[in-house]
Amino acid sequence: MISLRAKHFVRKIAMAALGAVILQGPVFAQSLPGKSRTVRYAQGDSLGANYVTSQIISRAIRSLGYRVKMSTLNTTLFFQAVSQGDLDLATDINMPQRMPAFRAVETHAEIIGTGMILGGGINGYLIDRKTATAYGITSLAQMKDPRLATLFGKDGRADLINCDPGWSCGDVVDFQLDQFGLKHTVRSVRGKYETLMVEAVARVKRGEPAFFYAWSPSWVNSALIPGEDVVWLPTPEDALPPNVPNRGSALVPGVAGCAGGADPCRMAMASWNWASVANKRFIAANPAIKALIEQIKFPLETWSDWEFNINKNGANSTNVNRMADEWISQNKGTFDGWVATAKAAA
Predict the structure, then answer these.
(1) How far is CA 118 from CA 9, 299, 303, 304, in A?
(2) What order do you get walking across the sheet with 89-95 strand by strand?
(3) Rounded CA gap, 114 and 317, in Å?
(4) Backbone φ and ψ of 20, nearest 5°
(5) Which GO terms describe its molecular function (predicted)?
(6) Domain termination site, one of 240, 266, 292
(7) Do 139 and 163 belong to one domain?
(8) 272 alpha carbon, distance to own chain's centre
(9) Is there a single domain that holds both residue 109 and residue 243?
(10) Considering the domain boundaries, does residue 15 fall inside one?
(11) Closest by Cα among 135, 91, 43, 94 to 268
(12) In this structure, are 128 and 155 located in the same domain?
């Protein structure tokens, strides 16, 4: 039999424990750094694997207690909005191509982390493999020859599918065409890139010549496999506009499908990456978000798989969310580790 005195002691311990739980309840609820806060998060207007990462990152941000308000807009408008404090964060800013525009807002914005792609991606010029093989085309410099250029256009000039008018990669291409002496034989075609590339893919599939600028990872190089359907044309030398930084040499080793089997292959520039840009005041007030973003990276192979899936099954929200959910499920330890480290930084 437990004595009355012992029962009273046990009851006191139980009540104290219950009180501790009651007191700790609000503390636990408040331990999430994003409680009652909203992140105004932007993603670019060019559909790709970056939409999958945006969903993964959104889920991580929500795991920190934040609400997420997503916007879709081009980078030029994002830079304006983030500098004015109307948006907080984007994680798919193409660097170094966008560096000139970023410098105009860096008083109010900052780059977070070192990029979302492990090792970075590549940019360059491609033609269909059939024409490259038939005419021995192994360099971009050969497009100076009107007889070769006219294979991809008319009147002795090749039609090169370039980037959207609002994309800075198109400015890099136009600069290089001038620098390499190709202005008289190559016509830069700048329109809606995705629409132009759908036709380019169809041309290659029909066995017709095609000439375009692209990057990897992207849906383009999932639809047209370098080394099988198309080849990269090495550039004659490193050349970038003065306001675009070149982070290392454009000579990239191990590029699959480089024309003539060149290794290293001289691309349009050194490796690029999806950078994260945030409003300075926002990121200073939210160290958990900074700590989260600094950790997040995905292997090039993962990006390529996502791009292939999007090209095959579409960039609709159902498909994008499914890929995000699958990645988190298969990489739960990594995802939870990101969130735990971010909480600890708050």
Answers:
(1) 60, 5, 10, 12
(2) 67-72, 38-43, 89-95, 273-279, 109-112
(3) 27
(4) -65, -40
(5) transmembrane transporter activity
(6) 266
(7) yes
(8) 9
(9) no
(10) no
(11) 94
(12) yes
- Per the document, the length of the chain is 346
Question: One digit per residue, pLDDT tens: the chain, 346 residues?
Answer: 445 454 444 454 444 444 444 334 443 444 899 999 999 999 998 778 999 999 999 999 999 999 999 999 999 999 999 999 999 999 999 998 899 899 999 999 999 999 999 989 999 999 999 999 999 999 999 999 999 999 999 889 999 999 988 788 898 999 999 999 999 999 999 999 989 999 999 999 999 999 999 999 988 888 899 999 999 999 999 999 988 877 788 999 999 999 999 999 999 999 899 999 999 999 999 999 999 999 999 998 899 899 989 888 887 899 999 999 999 999 999 999 999 999 999 9
Domain limits for position 72: 38-119+273-345
82 and 186 co-located in one domain: no
Query: Distance between CA 30 and CA 106 in Å, rounded?
Result: 33
Of 224, 248, 266, which residue sits at a domain end? 266
The total domain count for the chain is 2
Q: How far apart are CA 332 and CA 327, in angstroms?
A: 8
Rounded CA separation 326/322 (Å): 6
Residue type, 252: V
